[in-house]
Amino acid sequence: MTDEFSRIARYFVPLAGEEGLGLANDAAVLKPPPGRELVLTVDQMLEGVHFLSGDDPALIARKLLRRNLSDLAAMGAVPMGYLLTTALPAGLEETWLAGFSAGLAEDQKIYGISLYGGDSSSARHDISLSATLIGHVAPGAALSRGGAAPGDEIWVTGTIGDAALGLKARFGKLADPTGYLTGRSLLPEPRVGLELAGIVSAAIDVSDGLLQDLGHICRQSGAGAVIVADDVPASKQAAAFGAAMLEARLTDGDDYELVVTVPPDRVAAFKSACGALPVTRIGHMVAGEGVEVRDRAGGVLRFGKAGWRHF
What we know:
Shape: globular
Oligomer: single chain
Strand order of the largest sheet: 6-8-5-9-7-10-11
Number of strands: 11
CATH class of the largest domain: Alpha Beta
CATH architecture of the largest domain: Alpha-Beta Complex
Distance between the termini: 34 Å
Structural class: alpha+beta
């Protein structure tokens, strides 16, 4: 592998925006758009935990960005750019870095972002990656987890559980003949660009499992939630597994869809703001605490876990 500075010049300087000053200084200089507030989020991906050793480096790069872009989407922020840190083992091939930087470049074009700077280091064994995404919102317009109230409806974007089943398929635990579920596991679609300020009362992205992440809204809002399992939208590929994979779909996470709460009188505005993006009502907020899952007949369903635990 080339030395650190040659690596930066070859693979990362071409990705830098003007804020990054050619990656030739100790820090970037960022001027937010006039009258806007900055929103920052950071996420990491570790080899053997968040991706597998043989995964396509371009997809690893894109998922690293998209996990963070999903956090910005959950806050209603417009993405601007990012800081990147890498810790790479000495024996890593140049082709891996070329693929990784190509993946970054592809999603920079899609989402209109650029690299501001970061840090590079060596790793003794596995690859460690981190990205800090920076976005902006109108003053006071950032969405939060804490505004839901009893009576609000609970909605989700897209379909829930594809990524969880895709990961199982990658480990040979279930069949994925079309590759759709695997693709959803490798490359999520963050729901950036939705103008939900003043419409939804609370929002979060589904990263650690629908039940666990909805539970965060409940705790921050001081309310409870009731959802109907059969109403949680599934792709036709996921639906084919029926009830056998219900718990995995609701608790395993990695969807990067949004779950939001919407006052009933704002539902029409919510649907309009989402445009062609499919959205589904899955339940409602109630007085109390925690998330209760029911079947169509009203019976309570219980699961062994609520979602992914990092420790």
